[in-house]
Design brief:
Layout lengths: L1 H11 L4 H20 L9 H13 L4 H20 L26 H16 L4 H20 L3 H5 L12 E5 L5 E5 L2 H11 L21 H14 L9 H14 L4 H8 L4 H4 L3 H15 L6
Antiparallel strand pairs: 1-2
Helix pairs in contact: 1-2, 2-4, 3-4, 5-6, 6-8, 6-10
């Protein structure tokens, strides 16, 4: 039964040799399973397909790989039904395996300290005014991002006036036009003042650039951030503006901040979006029970 299906994929859909080989492997595994259970493929029902998917899980196959297998099986059973080999498609009611929600990449506190230290060092060793200005700009971006958890789109479009405010917070307009207050650390405020002294002209942006928007682009910042990360010994695939936003949230939660407060600071409209950080809370709660519960004798 597998060969006619593979022939159809090759003839009608122009499937490549590598694709056909992968489908053959997946089908062979499925048909071997059915054979061991004494089930003819044309007689398989939804319970048979679900049992196979469960068997894949017991073998330690990742959810993404099991989902690919199920996709192959769906195509196979649709083919059998369309060609009149079977009376129904047993794969239709079978839900795909749930993929575990990926945890956000997060830098450790020590890594963020190294990143900031490396940025300060570049200022100290700058050999020209231009190089110093560029280094102060990067330090300002890093201090602001880690201190506030701003979205990169919010950070790069900060107005020039943000650096001269007397307030200890920023008023940020986020997604959907919603405004929120974002507290500023004194270190971040000082970094902005230092950077502002090197911003030319009197334009509206804190991070002006020769771009369509007139300010720093996401792509340019992401590129420069990877260079800054490399100077601190952080691999390029482990750092991005979003990773620093995650670090801001995770480090706050790890040090006792309330999830609702972090939701407000990040500008999440729904608490469910912030709940990707609950793994941090889980670790903190476990340690609290271990260390503080009166019946835990260690």
């Amino acid at each position: 039964m597998a060969q006619p299906y593979l022939d159809m994929l090759a003839a009608e859909r122009g499937a490549a040799a590598n694709t056909l080989a992968a489908y053959r492997r997946d089908l062979d595994d499925y048909l071997t399973y059915l054979g061991a259970e004494g089930i003819d493929p044309v007689e398989a029902d939804a319970a048979s397909v679900r049992a196979y998917i469960a068997d894949l899980e017991s073998r330690g196959l990742k959810a993404s790989s099991a989902a690919r297998r199920l996709s192959c099986i769906r195509g196979f059973h649709k083919f059998l039904y369309a060609e009149g080999f079977s009376d129904s498609d047993p794969s239709a009611p079978v839900a795909g395996p749930r993929r575990a929600q990926a945890l956000p990449k997060v830098l450790s506190i020590a890594e963020v300290d190294s990143l900031l230290a490396a940025a300060r060092q570049r200022i100290a060793v700058a050999e020209s005014a231009g190089e110093a200005a560029k280094s102060k700009k990067m330090l300002c971006l890093l201090e602001l991002l880690y201190a506030t958890g701003l979205r990169v789109s919010e950070l790069i479009a900060l107005p020039r006036s943000a650096a001269s405010t007397r307030e200890r917070y920023l008023v940020v307009k986020g997604k959907g036009g919603r405004e929120r207050l974002v507290p500023l650390t004194e270190v971040a405020r000082e970094a902005m003042r230092e950077h502002l002294g090197h911003v030319p002209g009197d334009g509206p942006w804190l991070f002006p650039a020769d771009s369509e928007s007139g300010h720093l682009t996401r792509q340019a910042f992401a590129r420069d951030l990877k260079v800054a990360g490399a100077a601190a010994g952080i691999r390029a695939d482990r750092i991005s503006p979003h990773v620093l936003r995650h670090a801001f949230a995770s480090h706050l939660l790890r040090n006792g901040a309330d999830l609702r407060i972090v939701q407000e600071l990040l500008g999440h409209a729904d608490i469910s979006t912030t709940q990707i950080y609950t793994h941090v809370l889980d670790d903190r709660l476990k340690s609290m029970v271990r260390d503080l519960h009166p019946l835990n004798d260690g």
